[in-house]
Design a protein that fits this description.
This protein is of the alpha+beta class. The chain has three helices and nine strands. Helix 1 runs antiparallel to helix 2. InterPro entries: DUF4265.
């Protein structure tokens, strides 16, 4: 088994105008591409299991292959523990995983085949009244945040 390594990817620009990077655990493949072990909290457009090639100078990435996982980020105004206790078991029943938990942030990965409607029903139900908001990390174009990427069309296509 390949040992885990850490890469840094560009996550945006901070209020001071300086670049912000996120450190992510990966498995490095023979061709030097990297497979993400967990979904990122701030880097948009990728999820756990995706394979990327990284430009080490710019910390930008090129997507090589999608895993089919959705990245879900839940931001909490209060402590995230109570929300995690409620949300995590429901998503785990669908095969989802809690990738990261901090006092104000939860990050999940779940396969798109579970269905957007099922996933969103769980998220909306758990987050309603919990002083929290959730977002997909890899469903919308990172440039505008609104245009669906539609990468899941081939995965969900009936045979």
């Amino acid at each position: 088994m390949t040992a885990l390594q850490v890469i840094e990817l560009f996550a945006g620009t901070g209020p001071d105008g300086e670049p912000v990077v996120e450190r992510l655990q990966v498995r490095v493949n023979e061709d030097n591409s990297c497979q993400l072990v967990r979904s990122p909290a701030f880097v948009k457009g990728i999820a756990s299991g995706d394979t990327v090639k990284v430009n080490k100078d710019t910390r930008q990435f090129e997507l090589v292959r999608r895993s089919g996982n959705l990245a879900i980020r839940v931001f909490c105004r209060g402590d995230s523990v109570a929300l995690s206790d409620k949300l995590t078991p429901q998503l785990e029943k669908l095969g989802g995983e809690l990738d990261m938990e901090s006092p104000r942030l939860l990050v999940y990965s779940i396969h798109v085949s579970c269905g957007f409607d099922k996933i969103e029903k769980i998220l909306n139900g758990a987050c309603d009244g919990a002083n929290s908001v959730w977002y997909y990390g890899n469903v919308y174009d990172p440039q505008d945040g609104q245009t669906p990427l539609n990468w899941w069309q081939d995965i969900l296509k009936p045979e």
